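To make this tangible, we now present a fold written out as tokens:
***
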Amino acid sequence: TVFNDRHFSCENCDGCVGGGFDAATSQIVLCQNNIRRQSHMNRVVTHELIHAFDHCRAHVDWFKNVKHLACSEIRAANLSGDCTLLNEIARFKFGLKGHHQTCVRDRAIRSILAVRKVSKETAEKAVDEVFDACFNDLEPFGRIPHSKADAKRAYRDFQNRDRYTANL
């Protein structure tokens, strides 16, 4: 069960980060001084909820295992909308073939460097080692939600996931 006043916190943050997931308190922090648009907040909340999901499902060792962190960052960048075509155009990054994967990889490395004091090479190596498995892990959505309609379809699929096997 999620309680807004317990699991979400709005704070002023340093730098230009939009938010974070605090594993110690199971709390999502939204950086109110860095979020200017509803669409940005939606992406940040989704990104951090994926970290919360991974924390509960996979028992991620956030501080000692950089591969665990890399996997969750890959999943969050892939599934949150961070790498949509419109967001990439707004960042002046263009490309078609394999661009989504490149964006996910780059954003995962960037996120690791923002939260851990590791070298860029260490972050890149961790991302490369787990990329395929983590990029293809689409839970809890079952698909990459590219639009609101996709997100609604994914949620409907999630609600009905046991419907056909419940009577077996």
Summary: The chain has a mean pLDDT of 86.
